[in-house]
Every structure is written in structure tokens, then in C-alpha cells.
Amino acid sequence: KAVLDNAEELSKMAVSETKMGNWEHKVLKNRLAAARTPGVEDLNSEAMSGDNGLTLVEFSPFGVIGAITPTTNPTETIICNTIGMIAAGNGVVFSPHPMAKAVSIRMIEIINEAVIQAGGPQNIITSILEPTIEQANNLMKHPKVKMLVATGGPAVVKAVLSSGKKAIGAGAGNPPALIDETADIEQAARDVILGCSFDNNLPCIAEKEVIAVEQIADRLIGCMKESGAYFVASGEVLARMENLLLVGGKTVNKEYVGKSAFKIMSDLGIPCGEDVKVISMVTDCGHPFVQHELMMPVLPVVRVRNVEEGIKTAIEVEHGFRHTAMMHSMDVGRLSKFAKAIQTTIFVKNGPSYAGIGFGGEGFTTFTIAGPTGEGLTSAKTFARKRRCVLTNAFNIK
Ligand code: NAD
Q: pTM value?
């Protein structure tokens, strides 16, 4: 309730501090995190009963968790981590991204006030006040911190995995959306635009490139235009876009991460309406806009001869992150084949990427998707230790 009551203030604050994203979409993300993150109901004990007695397996806290959070979903990650970690009985010390520290600390204050109002202890969640990489490292080394949870790019995941402590890493992705000739093309076009433009493409699960089977590629592009894509047709404009959005033609220009399509178009000097949701172009699969996790509403389309080539291409551009992939197809065999081949933590069929985290799709939500360490979509049980308690020769009532 505390988050729901403050969702608008927090969302506006996040956009103004990080200079990324879309506040209306962040309201939806914050509400989703508050309403759909499981709590204690996620922790079901197991009982094994027989002639030799009763054995219980129960979830226990780790103690104090050090949680390192990103700039892309700053409050959302704090909300879902807090609910899951507290439900499992832990306390938390957050190390927020330095570029999102004010909104992250405000979020923590609001949650702590709500905890106290509900009769809970003071400071069950706390934060580093002046977060830096050095402070995050101090947190990782602190002897009283028993578990580490990192939500961010490859560097922080590597750092927690090298800590020698129990660590959960939720890392980068580069989600492809594969569309074959059996798909409902209008819906597929609508879905990829909705997913890609959500919060200006900041979610790690958001569509980063489309792989389209040749037979339907032109129709798909037509439908994407109708759904709000601006297609860059000239090589000269594409070259200017590469200069703007990449540094030295290679790495992502962080200035443009989470900026709107309208802002990118304006900076390119191309007049357009605010209704342009994504900027698209047809490229080959080696193009840096396909290869890099841009986190901008820029959606390259790669044409492939058939679904087999599409699966191969999608696996290649996902770089083995095993994070998220989408497929639009009416062929169950192909859907299964791609899901098996790409091995992503989240695989969405015939929907926008965010259906995979419970927004318009079934299932609970999280903003910490632990691909590298395999916990998948994290929830309270992820942040708990399993313990076994054995009573011999009693309490069996069979
Ligand atoms: P980031 O890696 O720059 O920062 C994330 C956090 O890690 C911040 O708190 C930062 O201060 C800290 N950090 C970074 N390098 C560190 C190091 N060497 N040692 C200690 N701490 C370090 O990421 P970001 O820009 O905030 O977020 C975007 C990235 O995070 C994208 O790659 C995105 O895919 C990924 N992400 C993944 C998930 C997921 O659930 N898998 C969720 C959100 C974001």
C-alpha cells in the first residue's frame, strides 16, 4: 500500500534523477512490483513422514543480505527484493546505483515507515548513503553480510560471484523476438512495439531486436509502422544514428540509454510526432544495434530465409546470456524447438516481453531475474536457506 500510494511521486523522481525512462510506465512497473511480488506464501515447508518418524524441510533466513540494485528499475528492484527478502526472514543492506541514489533511499524510507506502522522493527532495510563501487565492495566483504544479490550488468554479477559468499547474479540480456510466417503478424507487430517501447526499453527483458522470416518481413514492417515504428530507410540517417547512439561505433552511448524515440529523432534533426514509439531499421545480424544491449527504443529488424535460420540467428545475437526471448508463431513444434534451443530463463510466446514478468501474463513478478546463477525469477524462497529437522520414531500418524 505504501508503494501504491507513492507510485507516481517515486516514478517522477526516478525519471528526473536518472534522466531515463517514462514515468507513466514506471508507475505501472512500481505497481506491478508491489502487487505481484510473492511474500510468505512462497515459503512452503516440506514434510517426509514414514516408519522412522518425521522430517521437516524448512526455509530459514540467511541473515543480512547485501543487495546491489540498478539504475534502470531502481525502485522496482528495491520493492521486489525487499518483499522477498523480508518474507524469508532476512534484513537487507542495499547498495543502489549512484545515479539513482536519492530515489532509492526515498523508496527505502517509505518502506521502513510502512514496516514500523505495521508493527515491524526499525531499519529492517537500510542503504549505503553515498553508494560507490568501493562501498559496494566493502558491503560484499562485510563479515555480517551472508548473502549477495546483484541486479545489473556483467561487472557487478562477476564481482558478487567472486566474493566467496552465496551470491545471486541477475545480469544483462539482449532479447530477440523471432517472428515466423505462421504468426498473427498484426498482433506480433503490436506486441514487439509495446514491449520494446515500455519504459523506453529499460527493462532487461524488453525486445532488443526482431528476427523476421523473409516471407512476412514486408508485411510485418508495414504493421510495425501502423503500431508506432518509424523506419529509417536511408543509409545516411542510419550512419548519423550510429554516431549518435554509439561511442566510436562500438560501445553504447550511455547518454541515450532510456531516452524516448522522440528525443532521439529530435537530436537527429528528423521532425516527428510524439506518437513515434520506436525507431526501426532493416540491418544484418552483425550490426551493432543488433549485437549490443542498447536499452533504447531502437528496434532493428533482421530478415532471415526461414525459421531455422531465424532460430540460429536469435541464439547468436542473444550471446548465450540465456536471459529472455520471444517468439510469435502459431506452430507449437517451432515454439518448442526455439525454446529448447535458446535456453533462456524467460521465453514468451505470442505476447510482449513484459508478459514474462506477470504483466499481462500469468505468474508472479520480479525485477531480479537470475539467469547466470540459475534461480530464474527470484522470489522469497530464493533468499532462504533450506534446513532439515529430523525426529526419529515419532509423529508419524499413518
Ligand atoms: P550496472 O551494472 O551499471 O549497475 C548495477 C549496480 O551494480 C549498481 O548499483 C552499480 O553501482 C553496481 N556496480 C557496477 N559495477 C560494479 C562493480 N564492478 N562492483 C560493484 N558494484 C558494481 O547496471 P545498470 O546500468 O544500473 O543496469 C542495467 C544493466 O542491468 C543491464 O545490463 C540490464 O540488462 C541489467 N539488468 C538485469 C536485470 C535482471 O534481472 N537480470 C534487471 C535489471 C537490469
A: 0.97
